[in-house]
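Lab notebook, design round three. We kept the backbone fixed and only want residue identities now. Task for the bench partner: fill in a sequence for the structure below.
Input structure tokens:
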């Protein structure tokens, strides 16, 4: 609606009319003939005032809309699909990880509890997908056909590369394995470019990016079946177990807050992971259907 209002404003053209002396005289005589003193003229002036007020209100509103549009931050590529193309959506349940091949040959590993949307046929100007959650992208290279990943907070623009996007954490991140990417925030003008082995972190409060190095096994090992804990708190452990194995965790006698757990598992069963954990912090567990009960010993 704002874009349409801007187009209307820009399309307006005003032509100044300057009457000749004869026309001025005719207009003046016409006004004298139709204007009468008294109550009617007062009402007429009030009507003109009301009309002028409405006109000024409309003009002021239009000006505000125009300046808002002209100065608002750029939001990057928009996710649009033409009527003749189908929008494909894939959502993984907790404990479910899937692989997808996009229309251009790009390969995507989609993490549990995540959603990926893309058109069945990409547009001619750009390849655009939308992600909620976490995914690993191996983008098919094409220097004339940019690839864009849209998340809730920012856009990732690449030409051909491999990277991981995670929007689940309190600081959404992009970890670059190969190539080069540019991150652009939606709600601000902040942007950052990453080189291999750099990870960009987005601060939702400051609406800005920072960069750091990362351990590939910790960040992207999940796509190869690695379940990684690095000095994880108890709440982080529970959250990962629920997402990785698709279980609801109930806790009896929750441990103290100094819990810290570090371990790496590759395609291990839930029972084997729990056995390893119970060596460090004694507890009993019971798995029934999609539920896990942890009972810590006092």
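Proposed sequence:
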């Amino acid at each position: 609606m704002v874009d349409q209002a801007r187009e209307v404003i820009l399309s307006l053209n005003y032509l100044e009319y300057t009457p000749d002396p004869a026309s001025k005289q005719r207009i003046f005589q016409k006004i004298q003939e139709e204007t009468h003193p008294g109550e009617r003229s007062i009402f007429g002036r009030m009507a003109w005032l009301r009309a002028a007020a409405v006109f000024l209100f409309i003009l002021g509103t239009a000006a505000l809309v125009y300046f808002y549009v002209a100065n608002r931050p750029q939001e990057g590529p928009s996710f649009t699909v033409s009527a003749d193309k189908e929008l494909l959506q894939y959502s993984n349940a907790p404990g479910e990880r899937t692989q997808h091949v996009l229309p251009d040959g790009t390969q995507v590993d989609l993490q549990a509890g995540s959603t990926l949307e893309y058109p069945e046929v990409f547009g001619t100007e750009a390849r655009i997908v939308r992600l909620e959650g976490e995914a690993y992208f191996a983008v098919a290279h094409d220097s004339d056909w940019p690839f864009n990943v849209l998340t809730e907070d920012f856009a990732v623009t690449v030409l051909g590369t491999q990277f991981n996007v995670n929007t689940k954490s309190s600081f959404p991140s992009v970890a670059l394995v190969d190539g080069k990417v540019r991150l652009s925030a939606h709600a601000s003008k902040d942007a950052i470019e990453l080189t291999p082995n750099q990870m960009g972190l987005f601060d939702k409060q400051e609406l800005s990016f920072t960069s750091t190095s990362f351990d590939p096994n910790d960040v992207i090992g999940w796509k190869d079946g690695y379940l990684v804990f690095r000095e994880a708190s108890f709440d982080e452990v529970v959250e990962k177990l629920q997402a990785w194995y698709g279980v609801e965790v109930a806790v009896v006698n929750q441990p103290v807050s100094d819990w810290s757990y570090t371990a790496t598992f590759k395609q291990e069963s839930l029972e084997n992971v729990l056995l390893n954990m119970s060596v460090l912090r004694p507890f009993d567990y019971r798995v029934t259907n999609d539920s896990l009960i942890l009972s810590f010993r006092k």
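Keep this in mind before ordering anything: The chain has six helices and 19 strands.
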